[in-house]
Amino acid sequence: MPNREQSMEELMLVDSPEFERIMECVFGIQPHETRTYFRLLELPGSTVAELASALDRDRSNVNRSLSTLREKELVERERRLLDGGGYVYQYFAVPVPEAQEVMHEAVDEWAKTVHGRIEEFGP
Question: Transcription regulator TrmB N-terminal domain location, by residue (predicted)?
């Protein structure tokens, strides 16, 4: 998987990248993970089974996508107790403004790195 700097470089080659593509590059996630994030925005509080049905994907694949999105802090998980005993996890996408803020911070950090490399170059 390409690192964040490689992803940022690829993103710079696109004249008008879509928001989803920017998310994929900045967070280092795959298109199916981006789709999971946006579906979860539409269906907050969904379980893995509900998301799998909504996305027409296997539960194990959705579970892996959710794990990645949680690692990137784009999704939160809450445990809900069931009336008959046991529990189920419900998932919530962080609001887009929060994701945008993290994206801005990541791009700013990348830009600082690039500016530093520019300053290092010279006679």
Answer: 24-95
Domains and CATH numbers, the chain: 4-120 (1.10.10.10)
- C-alpha 28 chain-centroid distance: 8
Strand partners, 91: 46, 77
Provide the sign of the torsion angle of the four alpha carbons 32, 37, 38, 42, taken in this order. Answer: positive
For the entire predicted model, the pTM comes to 0.80
Strands (E), the chain: 75-81, 87-93
Residue 6 has pLDDT above 80, yes or no: no
Beta bridge partners of 88: 80
